[in-house]
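Standup notes, structure subgroup. Blocker cleared on the NAP input:
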Amino acid sequence: MASATARIIDGKAIAQTIRDELAAEVRSLAESCGKAPGLAVVIVGNRKDSQTYVAMKRKACAEVGIRSFNVDLPEDVSEAGVIQKVQELNSNPEVHGILVQLPLPKHINEENVLSEIIIQKDVDGFHPLNIGKLAMKGRDPLFLPCTPKGCLELLLRSGISIKGKRAVVVGRSNIVGLPMALLLLKEDATVTVVHSRTADPERIIREADIVIAAAGQAMMIKGDWIKPGAAVIDVGTNAVNDPSRKSGYRLVGDVDFDEAVKVAGWLTPVPGGVGPMTVAMLLKNTVEGAKRQLTQ
Ligand code: NAP
Ligand code: LUD
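Run returned:
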């Protein structure tokens, strides 16, 4: 196996293709009904990472012709203050999607805020009704959460078949691991979820044809944890110290890339893998939501 090299899945390039497709859709929507999709991106406080992601999302909107409504609230805003903003956006007909960047400051209850977003505008797909429908046979959620939807898109556009395959999702968070596992199940994979209390994760991961790593643990998954030829999608985005960089840090995934690349059949890099797809799927959800709202 020593000479084998995984095919690198270029998330950045695939995301760009999707953004080009969306720009064309937005143009034709403008021709048919004279309106542009609108996305409200709400950020509370000034966490550096959240600001970076939000800036990327707003810029990406502009590039495909989605109007972005920017709501920047101070760190000490009250929960009621955030909820009031969400309600205003709910009733604004020019806003078709609402995203509240997470995490929120500790004094604000995330569930209380997210459950205020009307499901027609829930482009993050975090509403319990959307997740519930994702979990149920024969039900279709209005929106799929962006990161899991992006991972699925990477598998499909790389020609990797899912039906009947063994998939292991590492992590069970509401925003990535859990919806990812449900989505793979809907795609007819046989799904196992590994989490922080799992005994012998290594043995379980080694059986997977498809690994989705979303634990937030830098380079946790080693080369010899991977079945030769497996498709490995690395969601992890971990900053590690790197004095050789101007910033003092670099981003690494949950997978030890240098080892995994020698064993896996397909592998996503960090950065340039799942991250850009999350942003592309947000745009896609917004365009789909706008179409639904404008043509009803
Ligand atoms: P999270 O809320 O912290 O959840 C982490 C999950 O991983 C939990 O379910 C936890 O288990 C599990 N876990 C932690 N340590 C583990 C270990 N040693 N072995 C197995 N499972 C372990 O994180 P998240 O929001 O899902 O994000 C996960 C990672 O993806 C982070 O690095 C984040 O930055 C990144 N991310 C990237 C994108 C993107 O678009 N690229 C999007 C979202 C998140 P328990 O449930 O038992 O605690
Ligand atoms: N909250 C997200 N919080 C954090 N990386 C993202 C993310 C792009 N409501 C809500 O957008 O979906 C969300 N909805 N999330 N995340 C994480 C999570 C949220 C993470 C990474 C990236 C979005 C991304 O583009 C780049 C990459 O991996 O190539 C690197 C960017 C860099 O810092 O250089």
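Discussed briefly. The longest helix spans residues 11-33.
Next: hand off to the docking folks.
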